[in-house]
């Protein structure tokens, strides 16, 4: 057993991508890891506050159950996938641990804040790499407080428009899971209902608008949601799914509504999407996985995604969400 390491991300702006923060004595089992985590919880939280992401390496965490116990040690409130409005298809492994996304390996999932396209979203995301892919499959990470600052410098009016109008999202919820997509969760599961009437009642309660389209699929438009988030330290993050929705979500083929617009209904210009994507790209750290890596990110400040992957080995990255 190698010595466990905690690495915290400095991100592009600081030149050094990773900095070794602590190097503890060898932990060989779950109980020792549990004790060590309890002792170091405060300093881990401070590092998370400072950097937005922390990588744990070489801990004796092997299974979904081990990972569940690891997350449980933090004692945070669980953010349940079943009850969420997440659009990703995932498979539960324990009550709080599930697969990150069942989308096929060739599908890229672009940078986003987890569930920022819905009114409720988790604060923390724990990722656990049970099995890394042979090639690709990296997780891009982007500090969106830095992106917010960069956007302000590049186009202040654009930031003002996002703050003034907010954004609304249009997505297609299929009838039954659609596994070829990164956003293929069915309307039945997303909304936790089994009939069209119940679906409509739930959407109406959420303040969403909708229309039924071919094959009992559902086109849903959210209410206006904020596009930025105050972080409590005087800073803000560009907190939304503008990049992922614009680049990765399917367009409504019936009416060609863009997956994301300003809350006023006005389109976000292609040149603006390109500017946002380019700036985000310049601030992105592409992190390759190794088996047993655990990554904790602050979802309020750090966007994540998934690069396509290949090879014979199956990539299995599990996730747990908390508040
Ligand atoms: Fe995600």
Structural description of this entry:
The chain has 323 residues and is α+β, with helices and mostly antiparallel strands. The protein folds into 2 domains: 7-142 and 287-322, Clavaminate synthase-like (Double-stranded beta-helix), CATH 3.60.130.10; 144-280, Double-stranded beta-helix (4-Layer Sandwich). It is built from 8 helices and 19 strands. The chain has helices at 30-51, 64-73, 144-154, 156-165, 187-191, 196-206, 242-248, 270-282; strands at residues 5-9, 18-23, 53-57, 98-99, 109-112, 124-131, 135-136, 139-143, 167-173, 209-212, 218-221, 229-230, 236-237, 260-262, 284-287, 294-298, 302-306, 309-310, 316-322. Helix 3 (144-154) crosses helix 4 (156-165) and helix 3 crosses helix 8 (270-282). The radius of gyration is 20 Å and the shape is globular. 42% of the residues are buried. The model has no long low-confidence stretch (mean pLDDT 89). It binds fe (ii) ion. Fe (ii) ion binds at residues 112, 114, 304.
Characterize this entry briefly:
The chain has 8 helices and 19 strands.
Search tags:
Double-stranded beta-helix, binds fe (ii) ion, single chain, alpha+beta, 7-stranded antiparallel sheet, 323 residues, 8 helices, 19 strands
Q: Please give the share of residues in helix.
A: 25-40%
Domain unit count: 2
- How are the strands ordered across the major sheet? 2-1-3-16-6-19-4
Please identify the top-level CATH class of the largest domain. Alpha Beta
Average pLDDT metric: 89
Terminus-to-terminus distance:
32 Å
Q: What is the ordering of alpha helices and beta strands?
A: EEHEHEEEEEHHEHHEEEEHEHEEEEE
Largest sheet: 7 strands, antiparallel
- The structural class is alpha+beta
Mass-distribution shape: globular
CATH superfamily of the largest domain: Clavaminate synthase-like
If classified by CATH, what would the architecture of the largest domain be? Answer: 4-Layer Sandwich
Strand content: 25-35%
Radius of gyration: 20 Å
Each distinct ligand: fe (ii) ion
Poorly predicted spans = none
CATH topology of the largest domain: Double-stranded beta-helix
Number of strands: 19
């Amino acid at each position: 057993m190698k010595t466990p390491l905690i690495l915290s991300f400095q991100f592009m702006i600081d030149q050094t991508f990773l900095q070794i923060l602590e190097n503890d004595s060898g932990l060989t089992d779950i109980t020792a890891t549990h004790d060590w985590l309890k002792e170091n919880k405060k300093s881990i939280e401070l590092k998370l506050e400072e950097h937005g992401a922390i990588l744990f390496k070489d801990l004796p965490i092997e299974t979904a159950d081990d990972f569940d116990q690891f997350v449980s040690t933090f004692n945070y409130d669980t953010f349940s996938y079943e009850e969420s409005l997440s659009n990703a298809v995932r498979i539960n492994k324990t009550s709080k641990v599930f697969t990150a996304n069942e989308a096929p390996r060739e599908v890229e999932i672009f940078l986003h804040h987890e569930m920022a396209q819905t009114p409720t979203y988790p604060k923390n995301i724990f990722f656990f790499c049970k099995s890394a892919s042979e090639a690709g499959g990296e997780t891009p990470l982007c500090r969106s407080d830095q992106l917010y600052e960069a956007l302000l410098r590049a186009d202040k009016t654009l930031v003002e428009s996002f703050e003034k109008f907010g954004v609304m999202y249009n997505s297609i919820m299929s009838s039954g899971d659609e596994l070829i997509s990164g956003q293929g969760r069915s309307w039945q599961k997303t909304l936790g209902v089994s009939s069209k009437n119940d679906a409509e009642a739930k959407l109406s309660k959420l303040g969403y608008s909708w229309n039924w389209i071919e094959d009992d699929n559902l086109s849903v438009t959210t209410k206006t949601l904020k596009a930025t988030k105050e972080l409590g330290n005087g800073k803000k993050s560009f907190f939304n799914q503008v990049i992922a929705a614009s680049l990765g979500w399917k367009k409504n083929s019936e009416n060609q509504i863009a997956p994301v617009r300003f809350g006023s209904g006005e389109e976000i210009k292609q040149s603006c999407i390109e500017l946002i994507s380019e700036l985000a790209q310049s601030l992105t750290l592409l992190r390759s996985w190794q088996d047993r890596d655990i990554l904790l990110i602050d979802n309020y400040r750090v966007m994540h995604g998934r690069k396509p992957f290949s090879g014979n080995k199956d990539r299995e990255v599990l996730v747990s969400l908390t508040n």
